[in-house]
Amino acid sequence: QPIVLRCPDADAASRKVADLITEAITAKPAIVLGLATGATPIQTYEHLVAGFRNGRVDFRHATSFNLDEYIGLEAKHPQSYRYYMQQHLFDHVNFSPMRTYVPDGCADDPVAHASAYDQEIGRVGGIDLQLLGIGRNGHIGFNEPGSPAASRTRVVDLAEVTIKNNARYFDSPDQVPKKAITMGIGTIFEAKQIVMLATGASKAKVIRQSLLDPPTESVPASLLQLHSSVTFVLDEAAASEL
Ligand code: GLP
C-alpha cells in the first residue's frame, strides 16, 4: 500500500522529496540513488544543491543511476538526460564523476549497453532509493503502457503521446528521438524504496488511476501499488482526484 503525502504546492512537495533523499543519504552515505529527469524534479534538485552548499548533504560516497536516456543524443546535446543531470545536479554537488551513471544514448550497441547497465546496478548492490516522475499516460522512466512488469533495462520505442509532449523541448517534432534506453519496471521494482513525485493538475487523472484503480500494465505507475515501500509525494493539484 503506497504512502501518500499531500503537500500544499509544488515547492513544498519538492522540498519534501529533497528532505527524504537527504535523510536517506545521511543514514547511508554510500547510498545508491536512482534519479529521474523531466520538469518535475528540477526544484528537488535545486533544494539538494542548496543543502549541499550549506553542508546538510554530502554526495561524496554516493552512486547514482538515472532511469533513462534518449537514443541518438550525445551527452553534450542540451536535451539529453546526461546534460540535464549535469546542469541541474551533478555539476553543483560532490558526486564522484565515476559514480554518476546515465545510459549512453550513443552506445555502439544500445541493446548490449542496456543489459550491461542493468547488471551494473546489481553489481553495486541495487538501488536504495529510486526517485520517479510520471508521464501523463502513466509511464515511469520510459516504460510506456504495455511494458511488462518484469521488464529489465532495454531499448524501447516512445509512445506517440510522449513524443508529442516532448516536442516542445526540440526545434521541431521530427527532432524528438523515437527510441530510448530505460530501466525496466522489474529493475525499478528492485529498489528498496521508491519515491514518486507528481505535481500539477495535468497529473491528477493518472495519479488517481495509479493509486485507486487495480494495478495494470496499461498504466505502468499503477504497478507501484505492488511494491512494499513506495511514497507518493503530491501537491494539491496532482492529488485533486483522490
Ligand atoms: C519523461 C521521462 C520520465 C518523466 C516523465 C514526466 O518523458 N522519461 O522519467 O517522469 O516524462 O515528465 P515531466 O516531469 O516533465 O512531466
From TrEMBL:
Keywords (A to Z) from UniProt: Carbohydrate metabolism, Hydrolase
One Gene Ontology CC term in the entry: cytoplasm
Pathway: Amino-sugar metabolism; N-acetylneuraminate degradation; D-fructose 6-phosphate from N-acetylneuraminate: step 5/5
Catalytic reaction equation(s): alpha-D-glucosamine 6-phosphate + H2O = beta-D-fructose 6-phosphate + NH4(+)
Domain of life: Bacteria
Active site (UniProt): D68, N137, H139, E144
Ranges where the Glucosamine/galactosamine-6-phosphate isomerase domain occurs: 10-228
EC assignment: 3.5.99.6
InterPro entries in the record: Glc/Gal-6P_isomerase, Glucosamine6P_isomerase, Glucosamine6P_isomerase_CS, NagB/RpiA_transferase-like
UniProt GO MF annotations: glucosamine-6-phosphate deaminase activity; identical protein binding
UniProt record, GO biological process: carbohydrate metabolic process; glucosamine catabolic process; N-acetylglucosamine catabolic process; N-acetylneuraminate catabolic process
UniProt xrefs under PANTHER family: GLUCOSAMINE-6-PHOSPHATE ISOMERASE
Protein name: Glucosamine-6-phosphate deaminase
